[in-house]
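Repro:
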Amino acid sequence: MSVVKINVLTVSAEMREELEKRFANRAGMVETADGFEWFELLRPVEGTDRYMVYTRWRSEEDFQRWQESRAFQAGHAQAAAEAGQGHGHGQAAPQGHGHGQGPAAAGAELWSFEVVQSATPKPGA
């Protein structure tokens, strides 16, 4: 059964463009991970300052392997060094998704879900 991980990032209006740029610069990092199924960076439209980083995985074990992988560790170690601070997904303490001049996000938390139902467009629809 697939699992969904949503990293919820609190981002001020002045840091939105920077956060999106930093994610664009990391494009391709997760796509080769075993068990990876989907990624989306969701920008808030109104009523919140929280971005959502949506990833879908074949299993919880695949997600855990990705978090323990060299690619994940190297990318996040580089981000932390550039931001001058620690970095870890799933921690509620203030941190940044800092991939450049300091943190782009003021905080983050990780939500986890199992996929119970899903739908795709029907052919010809």
